[in-house]
Amino acid sequence: MRSGAIPCINGERLLQRLRDLAQIGATPGGGVTRLALSDEDRAGRDLLASWMAEAGLEWRVDDVGNMTGYRRGKTNEPPVLIGSHADTVLRGGKYDGAYGVLGALEAIETLNDLDIETERAVALVNWTNEEGVRFEPAMTCSGVAAGRFTAEEIYAKTDRDGLRFEDELRRISYFGDAANRPLPAAAYIELHIEQGPVLEAAGQPVGIVGGIVGITWNEVTIQGQADHAGPSPMHLRHDALTAASHVIAGVERLAIEQDDTAVATVGRLAIAPNIINTIPGTAVFSVDFRHRDPAVLDLQVERLRNLVNQISQERGVEGQVNRFWTSEPTPFDPTVVGAIRNAVSTLGLPEHELWSGAGHDAKYVADVCPAGMIFVCSKGGLSHCETESSSAKDLIAGANVLLLATIELAG
Amino acid sequence: MRSGAIPCINGERLLQRLRDLAQIGATPGGGVTRLALSDEDRAGRDLLASWMAEAGLEWRVDDVGNMTGYRRGKTNEPPVLIGSHADTVLRGGKYDGAYGVLGALEAIETLNDLDIETERAVALVNWTNEEGVRFEPAMTCSGVAAGRFTAEEIYAKTDRDGLRFEDELRRISYFGDAANRPLPAAAYIELHIEQGPVLEAAGQPVGIVGGIVGITWNEVTIQGQADHAGPSPMHLRHDALTAASHVIAGVERLAIEQDDTAVATVGRLAIAPNIINTIPGTAVFSVDFRHRDPAVLDLQVERLRNLVNQISQERGVEGQVNRFWTSEPTPFDPTVVGAIRNAVSTLGLPEHELWSGAGHDAKYVADVCPAGMIFVCSKGGLSHCETESSSAKDLIAGANVLLLATIELAG
Fold first, then answer.
1. CA–CA distance, B91 with B27 (Å, rounded to integer)
2. Does the CB of B202 have a partner CB in chain A at under 8 Å?
């Protein structure tokens, strides 16, 4: 890198490519529907492939459709991998995923424009089926590259219409070779919109992501006694919903009292018989705890059990907690996070570190490769909706951070 | 009435008739399904008609199928009307309704057995479609007799299969003449199982019913902001369900803090989007308040509005309360209640007064005629289920109360 000049991306080119890609699958409400392995996904991939070719990248497709475009380095050492995913949810936004892919393309084109040679190759990746909306679960193909799933497991996944992943991958002509998988790599950086309200609330354009929080899902069942709303005096009731209400209020307190980063959510709730003039006999609800420390997750579940037991005893109901799924926290690699922090500092941006509350391809990649993420501010914290948005200024700032961090890591 | 002897019913005859009627529509689980105007209802009516004829009653059917059997008095003054309904809910019990009809028949047969002459006639009534399970709403045909509904309104009601009330009434051959309606009457007494846990908890066989509580139904809507469970810190959330939980806990307190007779129930609740990893954006739930004083119902709704406003302000959500239906309290007639109390006292039973938390035919009858009710203890407080039960001893005690109160009111 030439001393004395801070390289910076071509912001207008980045924004124009974001607009162009958003035309593919554009919805009347101003968003995008580009489900994995759909015709729109194919058209988006074709456009990306043409841009990669124009940028002089050698691009390849692996056996689950992951696309990788290589810009050669001075050595044959494993590349610095940068990218995200081009698929979207139903009626999603223009930036979730696409921004990370096109930000990576923009960083590479800037290296070209400025004739910057790096020791390591720099590679752009477009991961298949990150959203998991059409083929569950999410992040299937970064998962295959990282060894979490086999390709065969993913091939067998079917969508709502019974169409198989493998058949759809072949149909859109993006079935490639296992030898073309994007990993191993020397490092992985993913640029992404925050999808949350933290950066906006803090007035920050860019966030340095320290890791991805752990998640644990629990199902709480409260069994009381259904009864007529009229003839049962309050002191003779065993109302499952009033018991559940006290637990739900308590779950919120567990997060607040833990620390500023802990969250807890009751998102799903069903009561039975769910009739206006009948005391609820059963309440079943989910509790989602997230934290960066796995010990805190364990502690929160323990506190939930105690809370449910205590309230159940007080109210003469039966309470059960079933912890049925856990995703361990993923702290990002200090070297990669350090390169991102250096980039933020070089650009004179405020250094704001936060953790991701949601999963990303970087989570699985981090299993096998030093990884990190850059967030940019989401307006209103919104995502997975047509009104998802980030300012041009913040989008450009984030891509510049990616560029500088990539240059540092690629040497 | 002959001095020195307390008349009493033939308990075994009453219990045998309860068993016989329960054969019609008997379910494998030990209950009864005898929906209004079904083949089973017809068979039950035919059996009742044969028993009325055996007892020497002149029986008639009115234009909505209400059956009335008259035992003449010394005068032509309006009769004392006693009875209940023979229809049941789906997989209901053997006693809800049937006990009041057969208890009334037993009281009349006892008058016959003991050659007791009364000033006024005593008439047994079997109201059509009290349950409202097949043709909504409940208590349609006591409602017609009391002027709450016209027969034409009820004729037009259809069941789930689109069958009309009038057609079904004609099909089972119980379409009679409006001139045969059971009202006016000098007084009305309805004997019924409690369908609640109060008498059992108090160790009482029989309850003197002071009236039927008023009911008011409200729908509360909490509008917050749906968001991903991960990226939204607790202090930036507008969670509709945690807000609703505080309201639901508060609704319970409103009833407990009012007085021992107040009840409040949240029976129905829906949240959206109701997804495990999404903060609920909307919660809609019902609040059912019941009390014997209409001013307290108004006060409870006012307190609910204040509670919803306060919690909404604290939590940055929008809360609304829609009071959409009210049934005024129905205090029973002091003379009828007094006659029931005298009967309880004469029999040496403990005098326990309570109000009915649920509706009964007596509610509409009370609009146009002095009315009262007698409750007997329901095991476990259960009803509208196959395991609904009352002890033989209590069933006999309740019928004896009906007998003595009828004698007092008929003179």
1. 7
2. no
